[in-house]
Write a structure and sequence with these properties.
- GO terms for molecular function: copper ion binding; hydroquinone:oxygen oxidoreductase activity.
- This protein folds into 3 domains: 129 residues, Immunoglobulin-like (Sandwich), CATH 2.60.40; 188 residues, Sandwich (Immunoglobulin-like), CATH 2.60.40.420; 198 residues, Immunoglobulin-like, CATH 2.60.40.420.
- It has 6 helices and 32 strands.
- The strands form 7 sheets. The chain has a 6-stranded mixed sheet with strand order 10-9-12-17-14-15, with no helix packed on it.
- A hairpin with a 2-residue loop joins strand 1 and strand 2.
- The longest helix has 11 residues.
- It starts with 10 loop residues before the first helix and ends in a 20-residue tail after the last strand.
Length: 580
């Protein structure tokens, strides 16, 4: 990990200044008061380099940050500034996204390639410089170019301000656990082949806990994640689903989990045996260990949730919750996880989420709505080029779209085009805000499933309140889609199965304490309604966090214009912004 400093340098000079000026002493006393703690600046260096890593008895050279897999943990406090200098030493272009960080007025630090920046080319560098404003909890960082995030990811832990605790008893220890996927094959070759043939890509060979597959896989017992705990203590697990293409069930045998936070927003605590977490989502859960455990160790496990009609990695990864280090560990019984297609279990779990909505952490749900939008979200097809044979549905190529628009990657970054008002040939401000060809979205799909292609955005005036209904479709099979919105959190005011009913569904919305998130799964053959206030100027990507669907075009962008006041306008671009 690169060097990390706070604002603690120059101690002798500071002491001399304080002795010379009583005013500074008074100012220091003010800063010591709760809520007025001085913010720190944290400096990290990311060297993106190829590193040999062995899993499942397969050794391959993978992109890593500083030779670490998963990558380094970044720890800051609410209000702190984070400065990350990225040096790209590999042959792939790369960029990094700080998933869930709002990046107020500062889209230049958001990271999605060709949206807020051109990628960092091999041999080049870029500094991500941003401040964490009004956020605390578990977020994460990952590469945002092609499928590179399969190896380039790590936790971003945002502690509360000094002097501020949690709205629940302080845990004995906090532990980040990242769920991931391991491919024996080169993932860039996997997706490139799929895009060429039009078929679904080959699936992963294992799921991982903090990069380790564990004993359920071939020759992987030595690569098992072990969480050492003490009896009668409460631990906070900072869970992150960094898997490429899979929603995951998680549980610990003979233990319960109390969910206290989702996507760095506190929730009303609720206790479960099993949870489900989508790619991109984070969840803080409290694990209270019994005072007299019946066994020295218990199994933790993750397994997929999916309704896809295609192939998927239907394996289970295991890790160990260890009270005492046994000399020999017998095979541990796995926790009982739901079946891979148990949509009912997912819906029951999802219904538990409510914002804390306390005086300290209010739920500021937009009550009045300026713009109502309906987006269909799902798969589709492209015709096969005349000079080749394709392996997608009925000889076509798989595609994906929002309102039948499959996102076409621009030749330069949208944010820079917007900042310089050079839109021609880069983007169109005509993204359809309702489905262009209405049909029975969750019923029999239309005969024509071809998608349109374009780099289209929805323009929004500053401070516009938005209600967006995301409607799943059954084209090429109904499945859930974890939608992630950059630059914003949104309130999840309603969800259901079947087709959204604009007359009968809105009266059932929860406008009192809806959960606030940055990533939400559109239910299989269902819909979800979210609200947000467009108070962050810039160009912000919204996309499915299954990377296969992202590669097929399941994304769009919001162009939020500047407000009238100086603090409502985009910041100017940094001088080292990469060029395309």
């Amino acid at each position: 990990m690169g060097a990390r400093h706070g604002l603690r340098r120059g101690g002798q000079a500071a002491a001399a200044a304080f002795s010379a000026c009583p005013f500074l002493i008074a100012f220091a006393v003010l800063l010591a008061l709760p809520g007025l703690a001085a913010a720190d600046t944290h400096y990290y260096t990311f060297n993106v380099q190829m590193t040999n890593v062995t899993r499942l008895c397969v050794t391959k050279s993978i992109p890593t940050v500083n030779g670490q897999f998963p990558g380094p943990k970044l720890v800051v406090r609410e209000g702190d500034r984070l400065v990350v200098k990225v040096h790209n030493h590999i042959n792939y272009n790369v960029s990094f996204h700080w998933h869930g960080v709002r990046q107020l007025r500062n889209g230049w630090a958001d990271g999605p390639a060709y949206i807020t920046q051109c990628p960092i080319q091999g041999g080049q560098s870029y500094v991500y410089d941003f401040t964490i404003t009004g956020q605390r909890g578990t977020l994460w960082w990952h590469a945002h170019f092609s499928w590179l995030r399969v190896h380039l990811y790590g936790p971003l832990v945002i502690l509360p301000k000094r002097g501020e605790g949690y709205p629940f008893p302080r845990p004995y220890e906090e532990v980040p656990i990242l769920f991931g996927e391991w491919f024996n094959a080169d993932t860039e070759a996997v997706i490139n082949q799929a895009l060429q043939t039009g078929a679904g890509p080959n699936v992963s060979d294992a799921y991982t806990f903090n990069g380790l597959p564990g004993p359920t896989y071939n020759c992987s017992s030595k690569d098992t994640y072990k969480l050492k705990v003490k009896p009668g203590r409460t631990y906070m697990l900072r869970l992150i689903n960094s898997a490429l293409n899979d929603e995951l069930f998680f549980g610990i045998a003979n233990h319960t989990l109390t969910v206290v936070e989702a996507d760095a927003n506190y929730v009303k605590p609720f206790t479960v045996n099993t949870l489900v977490i989508s790619p991109g989502q984070t969840m803080n859960v409290l694990l209270t260990t019994p005072p007299n455990p019946a066994s020295p160790a218990y199994a933790m496990a993750i397994a997929p949730y999916t309704n896809t009609q295609g192939t998927f990695d239907n394996t289970t990864a295991a890790a160990v919750l260890e009270y005492a280090a046994p000399t020999t560990l017998p095979p541990l019984p796995l926790p009982a996880l739901p079946l891979y297609n148990d949509t009912g279990a997912v819906a029951n779990f999802s219904r538990n989420f409510r914002s804390l909505n306390s005086a300290r952490y209010p739920a500021r749900v937009p009550a009045a709505v300026d713009r109502h939008l309906l987006f269909t979200v799902g798969l589709g097809t492209d015709p096969c080029p005349s000079n080749q044979t394709c392996q997608g549905p009925n000889g076509t190529k798989f595609a994906a779209s929002i309102n039948n628009n499959s996102f076409f990657r621009p030749r330069t970054a949208l944010l820079e085009a917007h900042y310089r008002r050079r839109y021609a040939g880069v983007l169109l401000a005509d993204f359809p805000t309702t489905p262009p060809h209405p049909f029975n979205y969750t019923g029999t799909p239309p005969n024509n499933t071809f998608v349109q292609h374009g780099t289209r955005v929805v323009p929004l005036g500053f401070n516009t309140s938005v209600e967006l209904v995301l409607q799943g479709t059954s084209i090429q099979g109904a499945e859930s889609h974890p939608l992630h919105l950059h630059g914003y959190d949104f309130f999840v005011v309603g969800q259901g199965f079947g087709n959204f009913d604009p007359v009968n569904d809105p009266p059932k919305y929860n406008l009192a304490d809806p959960v606030e998130r940055n990533t939400i799964s559109v239910p299989t053959a269902g819909w979800v309604a979210v609200r947000f206030l467009a108070d962050n100027p810039g160009v912000w990507l919204m996309h499915c966090h299954f990377d296969v669907h992202l590669s097929w075009g399941l994304s769009m962008a919001w162009l939020v214009n500047d407000g009238p006041l100086p603090n409502q306008k985009m910041l100017p671009p940094p001088s080292d912004l990469p060029k395309c």
